[in-house]
Amino acid sequence: MRTLITTALLAAVTLPTAASAQSRAELRRDRQDIRQEQRDLARARRWGDRDDIRDQRGDLREARREYREDLRGRYGDRDRDWGRGDWSAWRQQNRSLYARGNWRAPFGYQRFRPGARIGANYYGSRYVINDPWRYHLPPARGYARWVRHYNDVVLVDQRRGMVVDVIRNFYW
Q: What average pLDDT does the chain have?
């Protein structure tokens, strides 16, 4: 029984290291593939015809895409499409990240609802959350930006000043 527990503990410790090493090796192979495809493209430009060049460009584009996918798999938090409720469990584990702090706006608290039009001073650059992936917020697409409003987080379409989404009591 003791050896079984010891073996399980060793496996639990070594498996993440092996997965990380595999990922590093995979990224290295992808970078080597990109360099090889670049050399092939240079050869095609020097001695090939239009079809060869087009084919080699496609191969290079594919090698770069594979590298980006593997890189995203390794450092995926930034590029992950977080869902609407993914932040709440993350907040329980990282309470200091969501600490209220001494944050005050020069205007009073107002309870916003989606569809409301708000003034530009509510979503100025000093209130924009530049790293929503850090808080596991859903990505803001296009002109939309996550903005802090007291303890709430508001998704605002900056082009029109419309509130798209509101998460109340986001900060402690």
A: 79
